[in-house]
Specification:
Helix content is 31%, strand content 24%. By secondary structure, it is of the alpha+beta class. It has two domains: 140 residues, Roll (Pnp Oxidase, Chain A); 40 residues, no CATH class. A seven-stranded antiparallel beta sheet has the order 2-1-5-6-7-4-3, covered by helices on one side. A hairpin with a 2-residue loop joins β3 and β4. This is Pyridoxamine 5'-phosphate oxidase N-terminal domain-containing protein.
Length: 217
């Protein structure tokens, strides 16, 4: 596709004024719904949520978003202005955690299977190693090494339009994972390290599944 906006600056929106001309006024209720602490509705939604996305950025503004998931209630509500996320084992890239060290601003969106509406939380995060807090987040005797503690600035409910448009929970829309190669195969192809034969690929895929089972916590 020809990217005409690279050569024609009139095709790029550069100010809030230009943006508002396209979209008009914000609905009054959308302005009023923003809260500065967790009420009982927000707390219940967090308690029900087994999955969230954590948005971070480093000091220079390079952004990243990371999925976080566990059994419902894995995010601890410490008080009406503070929540804590256990950092479970991953690939040790530590993108989100490194970003938080240099830039505390974070954004979270809590998702609940079957719910089309979501909860958004914005605030400032810190990485905490308090043993008492981490002990509350242990699973099968395994304690996380660190917790992401978020001091809340704003929290608000988000409407269902994105989920309705995507039909995310509609089983008729679910795609067959077998239509694409395995995760390992795709990464190896991308890095130029693809195995030579089917048996070797299957062995690598099986090893990843075993890793999932043995290192979830």
């Amino acid at each position: 596709m020809e990217k005409r906006w690279d050569n024609d600056q009139t095709l790029i929106v550069n100010s809030e004024g230009e943006l508002r001309k396209l979209f008009g006024k914000t609905h009054d209720l959308a302005q009023k719904k923003v809260q500065t602490e967790l009420d009982h509705y927000a707390q219940e939604l967090i308690a029900r949520s087994p999955f969230l996305c954590l948005g971070t950025q480093n000091i220079s503004g390079k952004a990243d978003v990371s999925p976080r998931g566990d059994a419902a209630g894995f995010v601890k509500i410490l008080d009406s202005r503070t929540i804590a996320l256990p950092d479970r084992p991953g690939n040790n890239r530590l993108d989100s955690l490194n970003n938080i060290i240099s830039n505390a601003a974070v954004g979270l969106i809590f998702i609940i299977p079957g719910f089309d509406d979501t909860l958004r939380v914005n605030g400032r995060a810190k990485l905490v190693t308090d043993a008492d807090l981490l002990a509350q987040m242990s699973v099968n005797g395994k304690v996380p090494k660190i917790a992401v503690v978020v001091e809340i600035d704003t929290v608000f409910l988000h409407c269902a339009k994105a989920f309705r448009r995507s039909k995310l929970w509609d089983e008729k829309q679910h795609q067959d994972r077998q239509d694409m190669p395995s995760l390992v195969k795709m990464i190896l192809d991308q890095t130029g390290d693809a195995p030579r034969g089917h048996d070797e690929q299957k062995k690598l895929d099986d090893e990843l599944e075993q890793d999932y089972r043995s290192t979830m916590y």
